[in-house]
Specification:
By secondary structure, the chain is α+β, with helices and mostly antiparallel strands. The chain contains six helices and seven strands; from the N terminus they run ααββααββαβββα. It has helices at about 1-15, 15-20, 55-60, 65-75, 105-115, 150; strands spanning about 25-30, 35-40, 75-90, 95-100, 120, 125-130, 135-145. Strands 1, 2, 3, 4, 5, 6 and 7 form a seven-stranded antiparallel beta sheet that branches. A hairpin with a 4-residue loop joins β6 and β7. The protein is globular and about 55 Å long. It comes from Pseudomonas mangiferae.
Length: about 150
Amino acid sequence: MARRARLLRWALTFYPPYLGAGIRVRQISADFRLVRVKMVLSWYNRNYVRTQFGGSLYSMTDPFFMLMLMENLGRDYIVWDKAARIDFVAPGKGTVYADFRIDEALLETIRARTAEGEKYLPELPVEVRDGDGGLVATVHKTLYVRLKPRARE
């Protein structure tokens, strides 16, 4: 699994939307339970008032919970991003960071809530922080998770 994590990190490094927005995946743990991302402030992701563009702040948080759940739950599950909400707290005036974490308790809850084929919609928050640790934004990701029909039998 460590090799998959390294390969995904490398692929995301050269993923054009991330490359163009200045988003860098700093770490993907071997068990896919921790992902660290950063985004530097530059001319191509700066808005009119010279702070991080809100769309770029959201982009840096977009696929990670989905990818982490897919890797941890396996091929028997359908995992999709369903919705997201971002709360802007302070302007991003420099490099910003986001750490994504999932734990065994979340995975057990998902397995229990989907065991009979029901969909489950966990809402997972992630904070975007500046270099001093100040809160810039909170993103609330809602995911759609369901056990595939062939795995229910």
